[in-house]
């Protein structure tokens, strides 16, 4: 679990001390993929998956650990200026680690198709149909300017599903309050080697490897 330093809400931003800097903690580590790098081909090729996981995600993890150590030192010294200056790096690298950890589980070589059970009923309730949901999440993801993510999240207060976009590596829950269920990475490193600059083709392909079992499990857990 990751704790960020500004909690964003409609009433503004509140400063929150990071738990990792208040108690002893283990360093963050790069999670193993639950499948081989080439398992998602032809939809996402092995070279992309290897670079994305072992280079990009690993960099977020490494930088997060370094930044947290610096923040711990600044906290011990009572250096508020240093603490504030480190927060963008914590947000970026912490978000990158959170987002990718979810992303890998949202994909599966046995994915695709449509969800079943409670999740499907919720999608029909909140979007009219699965086709409408798919079209809306695709459009939001295509429309991200520059780098970012398209998300299906759960609004616990309202008890409904929502679609949202986040810039860069901003984590969904930390910036919108929505609980992340399904994230689609639209940074160019997620698709450029295979799809060049044609983001819509990548988004069309990724629906073939969406792990609906995982998304459904996340939905069931967040309702408890």
From TrEMBL:
EC numbers on record: 1.15.1.1
Higher taxonomy: Eukaryota, Metazoa, Chordata, Craniata, Vertebrata
Subcellular location, record wording: Mitochondrion matrix
Gene3D superfamilies from the UniProt entry: Fe,Mn superoxide dismutase (SOD) domain, Iron/manganese superoxide dismutase, C-terminal domain
Domain Manganese/iron superoxide dismutase N-terminal: 27-108
Chain residues that bind Mn(2+): 52, 100, 185, 189
SUPFAM superfamilies in alphabetical order: Fe,Mn superoxide dismutase (SOD), C-terminal domain (SSF54719), Fe,Mn superoxide dismutase (SOD), N-terminal domain (SSF46609)
Protein family according to the UniProt entry: Belongs to the iron/manganese superoxide dismutase family.
One annotated GO molecular function: superoxide dismutase activity
Assembly: Homotetramer.
Residue stretches spanning the membrane: none
Enzymatic class: oxidoreductase
Name the record gives this protein: Superoxide dismutase
Classification via InterPro entries: Fe/Mn_Superoxide_Dismutase (IPR050265), Mn/Fe_SOD (IPR001189), Mn/Fe_SOD_BS (IPR019833), Mn/Fe_SOD_C (IPR019832), Mn/Fe_SOD_N (IPR019831), Mn/Fe_SOD_N_sf (IPR036324), SOD_C_sf (IPR036314)
Top-rank taxon, per record: Eukaryota
Source organism (scientific name): Syrrhaptes paradoxus (Pallas's sandgrouse)
Main location: mitochondrion
Keyword annotations of the record: Manganese, Metal-binding, Mitochondrion, Nitration, Oxidoreductase
Function: Destroys superoxide anion radicals which are normally produced within the cells and which are toxic to biological systems. Destroys radicals which are normally produced within the cells and which are toxic to biological systems.
Every Manganese/iron superoxide dismutase C-terminal domain range: 115-218
Catalytic activity: 2 superoxide + 2 H(+) = H2O2 + O2
Cofactor(s), names only, from the UniProt record: Mn(2+)
A Pfam family that the UniProt record links to this protein: Sod_Fe_N
A cellular-component GO term for this protein: mitochondrial matrix
């Amino acid at each position: 679990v990751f704790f960020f330093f500004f909690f964003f809400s409609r009433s503004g931003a509140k400063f929150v001390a990071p738990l990792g800097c208040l108690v002893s903690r283990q360093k963050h580590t790069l999670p193993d993929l639950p499948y081989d790098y080439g398992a998602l081909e032809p939809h996402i090729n092995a070279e992309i998956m290897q670079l994305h996981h072992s280079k990009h995600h690993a960099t977020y993890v490494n930088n997060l650990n370094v930044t947290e150590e610096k923040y711990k030192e600044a906290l011990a010294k009572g250096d508020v200026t240093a603490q504030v200056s480190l927060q963008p790096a914590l947000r970026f690298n912490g978000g990158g680690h959170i987002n990718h950890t979810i992303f890998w589980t949202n994909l599966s070589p046995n994915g695709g198709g449509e969800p079943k059970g409670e999740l499907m009923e919720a999608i029909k309730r909140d979007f009219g149909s699965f086709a409408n949901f798919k079209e809306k999440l695709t459009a939001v993801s295509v429309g991200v300017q520059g780098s970012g993510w398209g998300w299906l999240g759960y609004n616990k207060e309202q008890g409904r599903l929502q679609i949202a976009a986040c810039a860069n590596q901003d984590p969904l829950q930390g910036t919108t309050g929505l609980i992340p269920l399904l994230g689609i990475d639209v940074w160019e490193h997620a698709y450029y080697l295979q799809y060049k600059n044609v983001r819509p083709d990548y988004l069309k392909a990724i629906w073939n490897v969406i792990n609906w079992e995982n998304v459904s499990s996340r939905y069931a857990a967040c309702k408890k």
